[in-house]
Amino acid sequence: MIEPSQFQVNDAWTAFKLNDAPVATEQDGNFNVLALMDVTSCFILGTEFVSAGSAERSALESKRLIQAGYLQKHQLPKKLFMPSNLAADSLRVEAERRGIVVARVPEQQLLVCVGEARESFKEHLNRGSIQ
Description:
Elements: E1 12-17, E2 23-25, E3 29-38, E4 44-51, H1 59-73, E5 79-83, H2 89-97, E6 101-105, H3 111-130
Parallel strand pairs: 1-5, 5-6
Antiparallel strand pairs: 1-3, 2-3, 3-4
Helix pairs in contact: 1-2
């Protein structure tokens, strides 16, 4: 299990799918939300909306997500954790190109870090659909 207390702020980030089910929009269809978060602080550094129909994130989406994290922290982490079931090879390639060590781990190992963010996002979506 990966625990926030194992790291210093900005030592490790995680990339993960923020939503349980695709986010539906009237104009552009369904999307998944890929989030980038600092493991220790649990601060969301950036998000990218990716078409739910695409099997993989584009290289541009991956670059934008890493850049969003960099702009928040003004540095890159040493390590990026990604769930092994996340289709994000372009994100792995971009992270490694920037000198970040990428570790693919079972999603269960990240739940301590990402669970609250997912729950908050779900609540936010549910409030928006009720009003």
